[in-house]
Amino acid sequence: MSQIIYKITPQAPWREAEANGRFTGAPIDIVDGFIHFSTAEQAEETAAKHFSGQTDLLLVAIDGASLGDALKFEVSRGGALFPHLHGVLDLKAVLWVKPLPLGADGTHQFPALEGQ
To answer: Residue 41: which CATH number?
Structure first.
């Protein structure tokens, strides 16, 4: 099973994280007390459910194995287990960052994701 997990985020909080060397989360993460991630299988549904129609998004790939015990797979949408980071994301765990544009059909256009 792939240990790569994904974060969908607006560009502004991510660029701030890059400047600070750490990501404390988007507003919803801060409210919930952990950073929300998705597996490759969950990412497109997450984009459709929580980011529908939004432009200016980034898709961030993270090495989940490097996050240690702070990363927990917890029951969320539909009883599925979603990766949640209970702590701050050290940007050393980031594998890549790519734009997540909207296509002509109004859905986000994902690159190939490892783990699908």
So the answer is: 3.20.170.20
DSSP class of residue 43 equals H
Note the pLDDT tens digit of each residue in 19-76.
999 999 988 899 999 999 999 999 999 999 999 999 999 999 999 999 999 999 999 8
Range of the domain at 30: 4-99
At 65 the three-state DSSP class reads helix
Any domain includes 51: yes
Per-residue pLDDT reduced to its tens digit, 70-98: 999 999 878 889 999 999 999 999 999 99
Total domains in the chain come to 1
Q: How far apart are CA 109 and CA 103, in angstroms?
A: 6
Confidence (pTM): 0.93
Q: How far is CA 72 from CA 94, 110, 112, in A?
A: 17, 25, 24
